[in-house]
């Protein structure tokens, strides 16, 4: 009887140990290179449906590349975060193995995540803080140069307040804080570099105040939502990456509600310092990413995908033109920005 009890207890303990080794990678699966599921989270760069449509071919390309490198990923589960912070929290908890996030989000969660890659972006024809150049009547355009930085812009819309402020800026006059405070602003979450942090730092340097001090601020779930608010007059001002007008030129009248070309109805009233590009981060809590060989293969796969036409087509919705290996120190400027905004 005692032997039976001991045997039963031993079996139960053994079963529990096996369960504890669960998750996406079992011991045997790790040896064989089989990954049951890879969970990838995307920040809300665009609306969820648009990103999901693009993520499907990207997932297939990723599976194929990883198989070439000895890892058979049975499923790539894609999740679109409701906010930038939500993706950071998913990485922190290990409910996402990897995430496409801003540098600001990475810095907020750098104790729980590792930065693996930095995105490459197509440069634009205007890369300056000189507002006269931004409002010279010539639409900005993408260039062939791949760059590791971008900027954020304060974009005034077609509302009467937006146009009045833009006219003042075009005359070379500086807006007052009271004028900015009288406007309706559409911003992203506080974890967004171009949609919150850098515009806040710009306001702090210029006026001693941040976005949090404005009286009429609405947080948007995506830049598409922000631009729709701007086009319809629900917002007088939007903060976004500086190439946001290029990205929304085609849809400004077709889908967003604009009544004329985006170049005629909008203008730039502020431009921030350079922002280091978005990242691909991995979760320290993820069993999948604790496998160093898989982590390296995952990074190599994305870099190689970014050099193919199919890959670039899939990454287009994210605004990424490929990837390069990243180092944590590359985002020290992000850390400085956050410290300054916190007054530390």
Report on this structure.
With 344 residues, the chain is an alpha/beta fold. The protein has two domains: 34-120 and 277-330, D-Maltodextrin-Binding Protein, domain 2, CATH 3.40.190.10; 123-276, D-Maltodextrin-Binding Protein, domain 2 (3-Layer(aba) Sandwich), CATH 3.40.190.10. Helix content is 44%, strand content 20%. The chain contains 16 helices and 17 strands. It has a six-stranded mixed sheet with strand order 4-2-5-16-6-17, sandwiched between helices. Strands 12-11-13-10-14 form a five-stranded mixed sheet. A two-stranded parallel ribbon has the order 1-3. Helix 3 packs across helix 14 (292-305), helix 3 (48-68) runs antiparallel to helix 15 (309-315) and helix 9 (193-207) packs across helix 16. It is globular and about 60 Å long. Residues 1-23 and 26-31 have low confidence and may be disordered.
- Assign an overall shape: globular
Task: Tell me roughly what share of residues is in helical segments.
Answer: 40-55%
How many domains, as an integer? 2
Based on secondary structure, the structural category is: alpha/beta
SS field, number of helical segments: 16
- DSSP, total strands: 17
Major beta sheet, strand line-up: 4-2-5-16-6-17
Q: What's the SSE blueprint?
A:
Elements: H1 2-20, H2 27-32, E1 34-35, E2 38-42, H3 48-68, E3 72-73, E4 76-80, H4 84-93, E5 98-101, H5 103-108, E6 113-119, E7 121-124, H6 131-134, E8 142-147, E9 149-150, E10 152-156, H7 160-170, H8 177-181, E11 185-187, H9 193-207, E12 217-219, H10 223-232, E13 237-241, H11 244-248, H12 251-254, H13 262-265, E14 267-271, E15 275-276, E16 279-283, H14 292-305, H15 309-315, E17 323-325, H16 332-341
Parallel strand pairs: 1-3, 2-4, 2-5, 11-12, 11-13
Antiparallel strand pairs: 5-16, 6-16, 6-17, 7-8, 9-15, 10-13, 10-14
